[in-house]
Amino acid sequence: MHHAKRMGLGAVSTALVTLLCAPVASATTTQFVGPDHGREQIIRAVARLVQVENIDRGPSGPSLGDEIVSSGVLVRGDTQVGTYGQVCTVTRAGADEDTGDVQCVATVALPKGQITLQGLSLLPRTDPVITAITGGTGAYRTAHGYLRSVEISDTEAQVTFHIIP
C-alpha cells in the first residue's frame, strides 16, 4: 500500500472489492476446501481506482486519525462488473511518512448483492494484501473468506475473492 498521502488503491486492495455477478460468472470456479468440504467460490477481477480523497486531520502529513476515502470499479476485460467504496484510517503513524498502519473497511456492490471487507494494512505495502470478507447481502448474505490483492499500477489491482458461503 502507498503511504498515507497517496494510499487510495492499496488499502482498497485491502478491500478492493468486487465480486461476482452474471458477467463475472465465467471467472468463477468452485472447488472443495476445508474439513467440512464447503464450496469455495473464486472470483477474479481488476479493481480500478476512480476517486480518492486524503483527509489530513492532525498535524500536516500522515498522523493518527487521517483518512483515505476511495471508490472505483471492478472490471473483467472491458466490462464493468461492480463498484466499490472504502474508508481507511491511519491507526499508527511511523517515524517517516512511508511507514505505519491503516485500518480499512470496504464494500463491493454487485448485481446480486454486496460484499463487505475489513482489515489492517501495514505501510509500506507489500503484495499480496490479504483482507477478510466479513459478510454481505443478497446472494452473499452468508459470505466469509478472504480477498487477495496484488497491485498492478498506482490505480489498479488484481483482486481474487475466495468466498465461502
From TrEMBL:
Residues 1-27 form the signal peptide. Keywords: Signal. Gene3D superfamilies: Allene oxide cyclase-like (2.40.480.10). InterPro entries: Allene_oxi_cyc_Dirigent (IPR044859), Allene_oxi_cyc_sf (IPR034871), AOC-like (IPR041013). Pfam families: AOC_like. GO terms for biological process: antibiotic biosynthetic process; jasmonic acid biosynthetic process. Residues 50-156 form the Allene oxide cyclase barrel-like domain. SUPFAM superfamilies: Allene oxide cyclase-like (SSF141493). GO terms for molecular function: allene-oxide cyclase activity. This is Allene oxide cyclase barrel-like domain-containing protein. It comes from Streptomyces toyocaensis. The lineage of its organism: Bacteria, Bacillati, Actinomycetota, Actinomycetes, Kitasatosporales.
